[in-house]
Amino acid sequence: MNINHIKKEFPIFDEKIQNNDLVYLDSANSSQKPKVVVDRINEFYTKQFSNVGRSVHYLAVAATNLYENTRTSVQRYINAKDQNEIVFTKGATEALNLVANTLGQNFFREGDEILITELEHHSNYVPWHFLRKSKNIKINFAEINEAGEITLEEIEKKITPNTKLIAITHLSNVTGAILPVKEITDLAHSKGIIVVVDGCQGAPHLKLDVQDLDCDFYAISCHKMYGPTGLGVLYGKKKWLEELPPYQGGGGMINEVNKDSISYGDLPNKYEAGTMATAQVIAFDYSIKFLESIGIDNIMKHEAELVEYGQELLKKNNSVKLIGNPRNKGGVLSFTLEGVHPHDIATILDEDGVAIRAGHHCCQILHDKLNIPASARASVGIYNTKDDLDQLNESINNCKKIFNIE
Amino acid sequence: MNLKELYQEIILEHGKNPRNLRKTEGFNKDAKGNNPLCGDNVHVYLKLNGQRIVEDASFEGSGCAISMASASIMTDLIKGKNEHEAKEIVEDFLGMIKENPDLKSENLNEDEKTKLMCLSGVKQYPMRVKCATLSWHTLVSAFDEKQEEVKTEN
Question: Pairing relation of β-strands A332-337 and A375-379?
Fold first, then answer.
């Protein structure tokens, strides 16, 4: 499939949004859905629906196979060693909470330290904060440099003999910095430290090989990957998923239940209690195949071109100040406009059909560090074009006109 | 939808140069308001005399043009009004932002009403209503000496 004609695969771009063509620049928040994924949900509910993993009737067996096919596709997409290392969750947030909660039960002792970064989304900070409270452990922050990056040297500097775990984003949802995950993992493992990666922005935009990255856990958000909402993936090394206790109790995750004892099921069932987001999992298979049909190398090339184009455009625009200038940058353009609050920017852009995000993007620590209450963020996906970024720039100029700025 | 109605000249002017953006010396009432989703925050200060008349009103905080202009206009309007009158103005304003076509309060002169009506443009922007109302809810909280921070998520 040719990436230059990909927009037509997404039905939402046929819609008029308040009489405008949609210029969707909010994919870091959530991506739009291709027709094949939307249709797949409909088809499953219309013709194939059954719960999975329980009954022996025809539909149940077929649905179970479809559900497990997605697990195999995810395994292939991220190059995991074993398909039992793929656990479905209700989102990346739940995936990170699962890791913090299950590791927290036995692994941490008072005085232990967790190292995170100033770039982390709240979902890769708050779950660790729970442990700070309950286990009396300390959280340290690796600091960003001038470019809005986290360097390997900074991580090395912040590791202490008490560091038990490092939790980092793969790609910052604000500065766009891509972290040297493989190098950080090498360093961490040489000191016996576990590495957890928040891959929400990494998985949709970067070539993934979890065996090469060698991280212990990797969390994925499916709705940012052109897939359905209500679904996430936790990749965990088999040794961890086998060793750690279950997260939630319920049907489907057990082996045997007696009045005085319970044994738990094998991987991955152990972590998938209750009826899962069945239709979403089954449709997500089509998201992965859709991405594979375009080719991740083509996606990365396309998005890198867009980011470079957008960056140059905004750099030339007086009064626009880009946040971060990382050497290794993903498809995120965060900025402030001198004299105009980001919420006013977002409202004015929206009038032209340009959808961006304004606020702290769930990264309050980072915005405090940058000494700004909020920022505006345009983020790209596979369907965006240079025309979209031209429209962004033009609408920013309209903001300046309304607010009488040069 | 009409951007011109939302960003009227008077809003832009108050947003750029907010009146009473300071801390009242010797204030005897205050309250904080916060909009956790967008990060806007406001701290309202009041100095009431023995007859509960607002001798001075001021605010500190940061936010968008709408929220700054709203706090600016509000603190200007309630000066010289007593608590009862000020609360009536708040109700009138909130009613106007939500559903009423205009202001009914007898505690405002025509000039003051015109100024407040400038904020009516947010009606068409449901996501922005809370920007306009945060400081007003915070004002009531200051009068009532509520300890809890005001949040405008509803």
Answer: antiparallel
